Amino acid sequence: MGDYNSEEHQLLKEFHIPDYILVSGSNAKTLSYTPKCPVIVFINSKSGGQLGGDLLKTYCSLLNKAQVFDLREEAPDKVLHRLYGNLQRLKSSGDDFASETEKKLRLIVAGGDGTASWLLGVVSDLKLAHPPPVATVPLGTGNNLPYSFGWGKKNPGTDRQSVMLFLDQVMKAKEMKIDSWHILMRMKAPKGGPCDPIAPPDLPHSLHAFHRVSNSDSLNKEGCHTFRGGFWNYFSLGMDAQVSYAFHSERKSHPEKFKNQIVNQTTYAKLVCTQGWFCASLVHPSSRNIAQLAKVMIMHKHGPWEDLNIPRGIRSIICLNLPSFSGGLNPWGTPNKKKSQDRNLTAPFVDDGLLEVVGFRDAWHGLVLLAPKGHGTRLAQAHGIRFVFHKGAADHTHMRMDGEPWKQPLPADDDSVVVEISHCGQVRMLATEDCRSRSCNDSVSHSSASHQHDEEDYDSDEDYREDLEEKRKFGAAETFRIPDGVDISHLI
């Protein structure tokens, strides 16, 4: 640790973890001081351009270097397995410091939403008695996870003072539970050979990280490839994912063209048009209505599967867990009193075991989100959702999960593709006073929602078309263009 004044030194002591806790095989020790907020820091050094690397250097200069990890060098599962193995061994030796560290430990992750989701998945898989809560540093494009819990959506400062302020916020932050969602994707094995329909590198990390399920897995089905994974923010299907995938593919092929934000936005706007997001494209069959591509079913809590009617013209569906999509927009909004009574729709809560299912017709429909009380077409709130894709409707569609898009082959002849989303416990996040997410157990949440019951609705064509001319001057909604950042799809 460097030279700091006594106040800074005292603050940094609250986050410090000594080497012997972090190194395998160390002996138990008796220490005179137990920090209030020991932290492990994970940083994607390639996120945010140069910012990730700069942030890594600053954290290493402030904390013990052994408690700061570059995710490009070491995966979080290996780090946490080693750490908790050490903690258990030291606790069994009577080490009180190890016991207190386990109880008070907090994790910090700096990167895009994909990076944060990766870490949340690792923590969930560990199934710890005291899982550490997670604070997120916004270094991605949408930064939906940080924004939902009050950490902002703009890239942070990487200097010493900025990091010190962030650490202070982490120590003062409250813990908040959020729902976790399991996603299963099953397809028939191709008859021509054992190859996967999708190369694993093209799947989202939070999906292909599990690889195909093993033969002994209860979810395994003979003659099928089954993938499983999890998400915490959203899963989307259709045109918004297609545009995101097209942009990601273009940038991957020609990275030299994507170094300027204005150029990036212009390129993204062109793709919105050429991919058929403003009007159905004859050359892109996958831009068809969702109802033409798949049968959609939902499950309410403790209920059977029911068919969900998808209105004609809906070409994008978002299954939303948090109140932030593509850089801070809330496609669900808050249903007014009439909608609550007639359709039993509630305000969105992050721990109620329900996903908000929202549909969009096109990019013009997305302009509604720019209105203070605008939202998409509310389709349902569901404890589970299943997509069964029609045979021969198109040869592929596009999907996106927590910011990562991919191109999904669809069934032909007697093949089948099923995507099923189900509730899978909860994880713990850290939230600041500016947290936008609300808990169903928070009395403030309910009173806040009741004050918003007089909101207007924009579900009908007439509603959003009346407002369309006023919105057009803003350009396409943030949901359907590149946000303030560099990346739009992968972990960085």
How do the strands and helices of this protein lay out in sequence?
Elements: H1 6-13, H2 19-22, E1 39-43, H3 51-62, E2 68-70, H4 76-92, H5 96-104, E3 106-111, H6 113-126, E4 134-138, H7 144-148, H8 160-172, E5 174-188, H9 205-208, E6 224-231, E7 234-238, H10 239-253, H11 261-274, H12 290-293, E8 294-299, E9 305-307, E10 316-320, H13 337-343, E11 355-360, H14 363-366, E12 377-382, E13 384-389, E14 396-401, E15 404-409, E16 417-431, H15 443-451, H16 461-472
Parallel strand pairs: 1-2, 1-3, 3-4
Antiparallel strand pairs: 5-6, 5-16, 7-10, 7-14, 8-9, 8-13, 10-11, 11-12, 13-16, 14-15
Helix pairs in contact: 4-5, 4-6, 10-11
Which descriptors apply to this entry?
492 residues; 22% strand; alpha+beta; disordered C terminus
Question: In brief, what are we looking at here?
Answer:
With 492 residues, this protein is of the alpha+beta class. It is built from 16 helices and 16 strands.
Task: Explain what the structure shows.
A hairpin with a 2-residue loop joins β14 and β15. The chain has 492 residues and is α+β, with helices and mostly antiparallel strands. Strands 6-5-16-13-8-9 form a six-stranded antiparallel beta sheet. Mean pLDDT is 77; it is low at 364-371 and 444-492. It has helices at 6-13, 19-22, 51-62, 76-92, 96-104, 113-126, 144-148, 160-172, 205-208, 239-253, 261-274, 290-293, 337-343, 363-366, 443-451, 461-472; strands at residues 39-43, 68-70, 106-111, 134-138, 174-188, 224-231, 234-238, 294-299, 305-307, 316-320, 355-360, 377-382, 384-389, 396-401, 404-409, 417-431. It is built from 16 helices and 16 strands. The protein is globular and about 65 Å long. The longest helix is centred in the first third of the chain and has 17 residues, at 76-92. α4 packs antiparallel against α5 (96-104), α4 packs parallel to α6 (113-126) and α10 crosses α11.
